Amino acid sequence: MFTPVWHSIFIALLSTAIAFLVMLPLSYYFAKRNSKWQLPIETLILLPLVLPPTVVGLLLLSLFGKNNGFGAFLFDTFHFSFIFSLAGAIIATTIIILPIMYQGLKAAFLSIDHELVWAAETLSATSGQIFRKVILPNCWQPILAGILLSFCRAMGEFGATLMVAGYIEGKTDTIASSIYFMVQQGDMRTAFYLGLFNLLIGVAALFIIHVLTVRQSQLMRGM
Which ranges carry the ABC transmembrane type-1 domain (predicted)? Predict the structure, then answer.
């Protein structure tokens, strides 16, 4: 029963970290300025938010399948495939949580009082100094809230992950996929315990997000 739990935590941690590293510069850039590329790029990022996860999984299968496109190149060249592997589950989960991470980070950067940035610029602070010493200290709470929300979504990902990684017991099983197959097999007790574990993580994360949101609101009212 513990293998799906560790798989889910591992996948959620890595996919959240990847999504954060990829979306941090993009969200910061588009929060600061308008660009002709903003609409198409944001549309591409936000698509998984409006598509069924199974459709996202189907697109990833088309891209990474052993007989298709990039997946065929990887398999023929390196004898490696993302299909039916934890690596495939991480990619699928990352794609699914990109919209949540992007929206959370962008909202955090937009909440910054621009007068603080202008004041730093008048003191000849560099862009890096402004980001590290002005922006991050004033919006780390909503950033952390966005990260936690993305992590929780990653923990519960099912459709795209199942399409790409499948359900191989001891290899690619996650909490969500294990619950589904345990119910199919009539093992309601194990399914219940797995669901309870995921529920506790979600409740804890939502409580932390609530505390962070309240503190950020108090900080904004005090400024």
Answer: 5-209
